[in-house]
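Quick illustration, no need to memorize.
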Amino acid sequence: MMSTKLFRGCGTALLTPFKGGEVDYEAFAATVDWQVTTGVDFLVPLGTTGETPTLSESEKLQVLEVTRQHAQGRPVVAGIGTNSLAGTLANMRLLQDADAFLVVVPYYNKPPQRGMYAYFKAVAQHTDKPVILYNVPGRTGANLEAGTTLQLAREVPNIVAVKEASGNLAQVQAILDGRPEGFSVLSGNDDQTFELVKAGADGVISVASNVFPSAVCDLVHALQEGRLDDAASMDSRLQPLFKALFVEPNPIPAKAAMAQLGLMENSLRLPLVPATAQTETLLKQTLEQLF
């Protein structure tokens, strides 16, 4: 089993800033710098939060390059998943300079478990780099079951971790109980990070750490150090932010929050649109209580 020590702690699912309809690489570089200086353990560009389905190949390549240039040694995990093997492998070739790949369950297709197993195995066989499974049935319409995750973890050496965003705590516990040595389990839901890491998960790939990286990192690190009382207090403080960032589909609220903090424009690409006035007000109140 390949070492997963790089995939522990707090990883940020990075937003992609836009300005005038184009990727704002200056704002993106500043965002990565902020993530690094505030203690994030690894960086995850080109995922759902990064509006990746709306990016061109040249934009994806440049986003990865800027991330690598500003990562200061932090591992960079590129999202490459699509709903076809050919599309995913094309992204893998395009983004070959990443340290690892995050591969989502194929969306829309609704594959059976044996299809998911065959797909992820095929993806992993085309690279010697680490592959992280990403299960988010609310987005994909299909759930990667614990048994399939564990089969892949045991049988495919470079499948080294799973980002679990099913929301099913019993399913994640089954993975924790049955995983082989060295296989990393990462929360994909900010509001479940406390419970999952306390139960033995290795960290989080976080949306909220775009907005408040130091606090999310402190929460995860406190849990890893066994400071449960401190972590519980931090989690309680952060729960309103975790909830507010998902009152509309991610990354709509996160973009609005970052704009309120002056870190990027509140600009998204269709079919996503800016947050409603109600969401803007909620985020303003939430951020005022935190900062």
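The chain is about 45% helix and 15% strand.
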